[in-house]
Amino acid sequence: MMEIRKQKRLESILGDILARFFEEELDFPQEVFLSITRVQVSESGGNATIFVSIYPDKEREHLAKKLKKMENKASAFVRSRLRIKHAPQIRFALDRGEEMRDKIERILKGE
Q1: Which residues of 54-76 are buried (b: 16+ CB within 10 A; e: fewer)?
Q2: Structural domain of residue 16, as residue ranges?
Q3: Which stretches of the chain score pLDDT less than 50?
Q4: d(CA 36, CA 33)
Q5: How many domains does the chain have?
Q6: Domain containing 32 — which CATH number?
Q7: Is 92 exposed, middle or buried (0-12, 13-18, 19+ CB in 10 A)?
Q8: Which pLDDT belongs to residue 83?
């Protein structure tokens, strides 16, 4: 089991490494905005879920599928840059929080 302090540090480092991965390895259209919203490392340190938001909405599902296909490549990218014995397996997930906030805001405005 990983200490909370080490877990939080690893989450921060993974966010930085994966931001670089997106810049170097992903070929998204210029009008697409992808943001890492949160990184969650499992207690064992063996898995990391990277939550992302993608704009515009019409590109979200298509690009989420593309990210899923790149999870192994992202894991290899992380392993090549981390100086720890066992790097976590990377998984990407859409952060639905922003989508839900927008939906609630539209409802409250009566749209």
Answers
A1: beeeebbeebeeebeebeeebbe
A2: 4-109
A3: none
A4: 10
A5: 1
A6: 3.30.300.20
A7: buried
A8: 82
